[in-house]
Amino acid sequence: MPSDKRDTAEPLRGGNGAANLALILSQSHLVFRPHGLEFHSRDPLPLWSEVQVDVHPPGIPQPVRGNGVVVDCAGNPDLGYTIALFLLDLPATARQYWDRLVQAA
After folding, report:
1. 20 vs 49, 90, 92, 102, CA distance in Å?
2. What is the pLDDT of residue 57?
3. What pLDDT, on the 0 to 100 scale, is given for residue 72?
4. Any idea where the domains of the chain sit in the sequence?
5. Splitting the chain (105 residues) into consecutive groups of 10 residues, what average pLDDT does each group show?
6. What does DSSP say about strands 19-22 and 31-33: parallel, antiparallel, or unpaired?
């Protein structure tokens, strides 16, 4: 029986008020962009908020980690939100992995 429940990212609030995103998603629910990514979330995130992300795509030995800024958040409480995140910094090794993910998408 197919499920209509979508995988979502869960925003977790840190002690300093910054959002940390724990992305537990299948790669099919992520849209990789050269400078960021899009994902579905049950909760909205404020525009321009800074977030720290770990993305665990299949086939990559270590998580791709970086900091980003929310540049778009569209949706509603019933269906959830599509979040667009612009990545600010990726270490050189993570950038190589990221470039492969963008090309594969």
Report:
1. 10, 16, 22, 23
2. 65
3. 96
4. 10-104
5. 44 46 56 87 89 73 80 95 88 78 78
6. unpaired
Domain made up of 10-104: CATH architecture: Beta Barrel (2.40)
> Where do we find the tokens 């970086």?
66
Residues 6+ apart with CB under 8 A from 54: 21, 22, 23, 63, 64, 65
Residue 103's φ and ψ, nearest 5 degrees, are: -65, -35
Q: Which residue type, as a one-letter code, is found at position 16?
A: N
DSSP annotation of 17: S
9 DSSP β-pair partners: 41
Q: pTM for the whole thing?
A: 0.70
